């Protein structure tokens, strides 16, 4: 069995369509019509690991109700998990320079010390840790506040990496040097120097598996800020509408939803928000 370069094993058009439907039904991710080579490459390892001879065999295997663990492997394989610390840095500036002050005034007026954030696509952890550091830098006495960040993702593989909080030198290059020194422990090595997010930061973040198309989210809100960036682009419009509608239910009135600069929230939910900044939406009702 040869998988090199897509290999001699053929992914039939009918099999590809069946994979597309299965992935869409179970995760909401829309692969579209032209990702056959991507799917072949990503699934080759799973066929080898299971000793299967064809994509048709794998399709039958992963479709069995008893093989839910393998479905997780499938979703992990096709998920794109590119991220970085302080990606789309302007959002962190807006959060720190403008929006946190507004939320803090609101909290103090209601005698609350609770700040809640949700990172809806945590990937390998860079985004929620960037948020945690941003909050630690803002609050001079963070121990006086009850601050928690929920970080969710559909990929169990990246969630495990995120919880470890360990990154290569290349991965932390976008962290400002002062913050790198303040919030990361350095582990020198000739082969691969590593940086680990300090306990103070890691303890602020709770990582959980979540499929955004689930009809019910097994956690409570409301959140003051929700970051759902670089997620909606993987869904078709009807799925986007369903997801954003659910997400908005978890934002406190006056709270904020962040999307990426390449995304727009669906027109069907626009009446619930107003634009506060590029790709930043304030919930108004």
Overview features:
285 residues, alpha/beta, Chemotaxis Receptor Methyltransferase Cher, domain 1, Rossmann fold, 2 domains, 7-stranded mixed sheet, 3-stranded antiparallel sheet, 10 strands, globular, disordered N terminus
Describe, in plain words, how this protein is organized in 3D:
The structure is a single chain. The protein has 285 residues and is an alpha/beta fold. It folds into two domains: 4-78, Orthogonal Bundle (Chemotaxis Receptor Methyltransferase Cher, domain 1); 90-165 and 198-283, Rossmann fold (3-Layer(aba) Sandwich). 41% of the residues lie in helices and 18% in strands. It contains ten helices and ten strands. It has helices at residues 13-27, 36-50, 55-63, 68-78, 90-109, 126-138, 156-164, 177-183, 199-202, 237-249, and strands spanning 114-119, 146-153, 166-168, 184-187, 194-197, 205-209, 223-227, 251-258, 273-277, 280-283. The longest helix is centred in the middle third of the chain and has 20 residues, at 90-109. The chain is globular.
